[in-house]
Amino acid sequence: MLRRPIRSFALRQGRFSPAQRRAHEELLPRFGIAFAEAPLDLAAVFGRPAPKILEIGSGMGETTAAIAQAAPDRDFLAVEVHAPGVGGLLKQIDERALTNLRVIQHDAAEVVAQMIAPGALAGIHVFFPDPWPKKRHHKRRLLQPPFVHELALRLAPGGYLHAATDWVDYAAAILAALTADPLLENAARDYAPRPDYRPLTKFERRGLRLGHGVWDIVFRRR
Ligand SMILES: C[S@@+](CC[C@H](N)C(=O)[O-])C[C@H]1O[C@@H](n2cnc3c(N)ncnc32)[C@H](O)[C@@H]1O
Question: Of the listed 94, 130, 166, 216, which one is catalytic?
Answer without folding.
Answer: 130
